[in-house]
Amino acid sequence: MRIAQVSTLYESVPPRRYGGIERVVSWLTEELVKMGHDVTLFASADSRTRAKLVASSDCAVRLLEDTADPQAFHFAMLEDVVRASGDFDIVHFHTDYMSFPYARRLDAAHVTTLHWRLDVPGLDALYRRFADVPLVSISDAQREPMPWAGWTATVHHGMPAALLPFQARAERHLAFVGRIAPSKGPDAAIRIARRANVPLRIAAKIDEADRPYFIRDVEPLIEAPHVEFVGELDDHGKRGLLGHARAMLFPIAWPEPFGIAMIEALACGTPVIAFGRGSVPEIIEHGVSGFIVRDEDEAVEAVARLPEIDRRACRARFEQFFTAERMARAYVEVYERLVRERTARLTLTEV
């Protein structure tokens, strides 16, 4: 198939460090190329891919935010996608609702994967006006605020099977990986580790918008002797921190649409102790690949139960459900169905 992947431009594809959407776009794009599809990637010029790259900004626009309007780059890119759409069988958007008006103008089938939460005031009215736009959810839980939207499938994220290798033996520490934000619960992770009397290693990005929270609620806790803050890590760094952790703590305070850090942990064979919100029950099998808990008290109890978890079972769950190959094959099924439906509509129109 001739497939266009349209990424956000905030980070390169793949991102150098943190960047969930752009990381998934990269995994999917490279797997589709590997499967033999003709793939074009619309992304920033500093992206790295085996697909055809259409550079829509000179670099990740995150690097230009103080001197440029990042949305201007996105709107220009989406107009370029419209003009080139006749060259594709399907266009796959990862740009949230920004692409909806453009999608209606395409000379190709299209689908949009939503990567964000949907329980936000104002979104309901917008999505009702674009109820004809085909959507993919990244978890069933993500759909709950808008079950009536134009859902065509749920496709869980997947990552390359060899990216983070299985580690059979764990060291003593727990891990927290992701972003320093109230919704991610790093302060809760620190309290859980302290009460369980276990060291905690934190690998996380701090966005400027979350820096006041970090200074007020997290930084004083990081000074505790059981905590080590290592900042952002690349994939190589995660191999050591996650791969050798007794468990990863995921004490989220929001309806997480997916949570890539969870499948990164499972790939390493590392169980996950997570609050049961959002997508967590779709990713973690309680008592097999980790523990789903309700609060910090239950999380502390779960740390004591970690010897019950077989790290091989964690890796097996990853290989069964969360590889890039599985994700790409699921998306190809969506693409083929949407192309068939568009062809049928055009045929009826001609008749």
UniProtKB/TrEMBL annotation:
Keyword NAD attributed: no
Pfam families in alphabetical order: Glyco_transf_4, Glycos_transf_1
Keywords for this protein: Transferase
Keyword Repeat applies: no
Chain ranges of the Glycosyltransferase subfamily 4-like N-terminal domain: 18-121
GO molecular function, one term: glycosyltransferase activity
Lineage top rank: taxon: Bacteria
Domain Glycosyl transferase family: 172-308
PANTHER family xrefs: BLL5217 PROTEIN (PTHR12526:SF595), GLYCOSYLTRANSFERASE (PTHR12526)
Protein's recorded name: Glycosyl transferase
